[in-house]
Amino acid sequence: MSRDEREAFLADVHVGVFGVADPRGDRAPLLVPVWYAYEPGGGITVFTGRESVKADLVRAAGRISLCVQDETAPYRYVSVEGPAVIEDRVDPGERAAMAHRYLDPVTAPAYLEANSHQLEGDVTVRMRPERWRTADFNAFAKEFS
């Protein structure tokens, strides 16, 4: 994908797979599905529990990765990785924007109300992508059409 294509794809609504190194003994990296925010040219934003395993591992590793995909043929994906920082707060406006990104206009306010306690219990993880990996199988699929 071109730079514009990959950034537009990442900015679209997908559930991302968040990855962070897990040095606790004989373990593979921690991979979990997450909601995320991204604007072309900017950074990735994810919210997680202040005392979660994910937050602890980000603090230790200082780096994360995120992979998003299109699950319909022809398949596409974007994977990014970079340094991560944790902010010890969640901006209510950013949380509301993320809920409205993933939920319909009726469900988002109800979700925000039901989970308002998370504003105190969550932290914000921010990552600026340094490395990108992409694939777009549109051209490959055209060979078989």
Automatic annotation (TrEMBL):
It comes from Nocardiopsis sediminis. The keyword Oxidoreductase applies. Residues 4-134 form the Pyridoxamine 5'-phosphate oxidase N-terminal domain. This is Pyridoxamine 5'-phosphate oxidase family protein. The keyword Hydrolase does not apply. Transmembrane segments: none annotated. Keywords: Oxidoreductase.
